[in-house]
Structures are given as C-alpha cells and as structure tokens.
Design goal:
Length: about 120
C-alpha cells in the first residue's frame, strides 16, 4: 500500500521540473558546464523526478501511460545517482530542454484532470 497519493508523486515531479527550468532559465550550456552549483542543483532535481516516477508508477501503474518513457526517466536518474562521475553535461542539458518541459506539461495536465 502506498504511503503517498498519486497526486503527491505527480506534484513532486512537476515541482522538480519547474525548479530545473527555473535554474537554467536565461542560461547557456557554457554557463551550465562552468557552474558546479547549477549542475548539482539540476542533477538533484532530476534525481527527484526519477525517484518520484519510479515510486509513483510502482504504486500507480496507470501513471505510466500519462507520464511517458518511465524506464528511460528512471534509468537517467540511476545514471545521475550511481554514475555521477560520468554524467555528460551535454546530455543533461539536452534532456532539460527537450524532455523536462514535456514531462511538466503531462504532470500538470494530469493534476488538472484529477482535481
């Protein structure tokens, strides 16, 4: 039995996505590469996204249809956490700009539909 609601997991995902987009707003890839604190902050929020996706879909499998590529999201989280020494800034930057806004929109849409 989950200790948290489906909406709580979705809120965590959306909140971390918003934070990532806020952190990188107005920044360039070169800024990201040079700013250790920015990289760590983005990686931390992305790890929260991956963990919330993993736990949320474990307890609420129907979320997978709405969220999208769950295995890839969780694998990316695992890479950030366990393969931290080999995290590629170019890949993270690409994910942040291509995937995070889509995931945020999906979560926000789901939360609107559920309320």
């Amino acid at each position: 039995m989950p200790r948290r609601s489906k909406e709580a997991y979705l809120w965590d995902i959306a909140d971390s996505c918003r934070a990532v987009l806020e952190f990188v707003g107005g920044r360039e890839l070169s800024d990201y590469r040079q700013d250790r604190m920015l990289r760590r902050a983005v990686e931390r929020e992305l790890s929260i996204v991956g963990e919330a996706v993993s736990q949320g879909t474990r307890y609420f499998p129907e979320l997978e249809e709405r969220i999208g590529p769950v295995r890839q999201i969780v694998a990316f989280r695992n890479r950030i956490i366990h393969g931290y020494a080999d995290v590629d800034s170019d890949i993270v930057w690409a994910v942040v700009h291509a995937e995070v806004p889509r995931l945020l929109e999906k979560c926000e849409s789901f939360l609107r539909d559920e309320s």
